[in-house]
Amino acid sequence: MFNYEIIQSLNDLELSLYRYIMKNIEKVVYMRIRELADEAHVSTTTILRFCKKLNCEGYSEFKVKLKLYLEENESTKVNNDTSIIVDFFKKLDNSELDRKLNVLCDLIKKASNVVFIGTGTSGILCKYAARYFSSIGKFSMYIDDPYFPRNYKLYEDSIIIAMSVSGETRTVIDYISNIKRENTTLVSITNSENCTISKISDLNISYYVQQERLGISDITTQIPVLYIIESMGKRLHNKFIVDSSDYSK
């Protein structure tokens, strides 16, 4: 309701009204226009102009939209059922997941560089993954800023591992679409394989857990992603040991 473009369009008086409404939103939904004008120290004309900028025909429609906005953003209980995580670990006997992890380990082992890309919570996991892989002997980097300058030479003979719950993060899609033109291999780790990032990847690993949101925030469990990261790292480390043993012979 109050998006960036609308707030940018407000003048000083309308911004004062906006601040009052946000601080007293539960009271405002029941106020008459004259009551709001007196409380916020603005004219009814300012209120009607404010409503128009929010694409409302009048004050009555504004109050209806404000009430809906309030209901949508009310605190709700989040699911604390561990069955989602238990179900994921039960599915780990899946031979297809095991095969993909082994293929990915082989790709990482051959790559000149490993770069993890993601934003938000996925960006934090990218940082963890880069550190974890570097700890087991495969130096890796992470990019959690989709506007990070693109040095295409860096990505030659690299493997890019994109992380995204939805697989539809536009800035990540734009970034990896550009670097995919180089001699790179793109792998994605997403909640579902039926997403844009998965479809443009050379290899996708999906974990399928129930997606959860709290308002605009995605609070889907990231335990499956942590498992995938650490499983890849340990498999890769074991491959290094085997290769070292063969070389010493």
Produce the secondary structure layout.
Blueprint: H1 4-9, H2 12-23, H3 25-28, H4 33-40, H5 44-53, H6 59-72, H7 83-90, H8 95-110, E1 113-117, H9 120-135, E2 140-143, E3 158-164, H10 170-179, E4 184-190, H11 196-199, E5 203-206, E6 213-214, E7 217-218, H12 223-248
Parallel strand pairs: 1-2, 1-3, 3-4, 4-5
Antiparallel strand pairs: 6-7
Helix pairs in contact: 8-12, 9-12
GO molecular function: carbohydrate derivative binding; DNA binding; DNA-binding transcription factor activity
Domain HTH rpiR-type: 1-73
Pfam family, one: SIS
- What's the SSE pattern? HHHHHHHHEHEEHEHEEEH
Q: What do the pLDDT scores average to?
A: 85
Spatial shape = elongated
Task: Give the number of domains.
Answer: 2
How is this structure best described in words?
The chain is α/β, with parallel strands linked by helices and 249 residues long. It has two domains: 4-72, Orthogonal Bundle (Arc Repressor Mutant, subunit A); 83-248, Glucose-6-phosphate isomerase like protein, domain 1 (Rossmann fold), CATH 3.40.50. It has helices at residues 4-9, 12-23, 25-28, 33-40, 44-53, 59-72, 83-90, 95-110, 120-135, 170-179, 196-199, 223-248, and strands at residues 113-117, 140-143, 158-164, 184-190, 203-206, 213-214, 217-218. Helix 8 crosses helix 12 (223-248) and helix 9 (120-135) packs parallel to helix 12 (223-248). The mean pLDDT is 85.
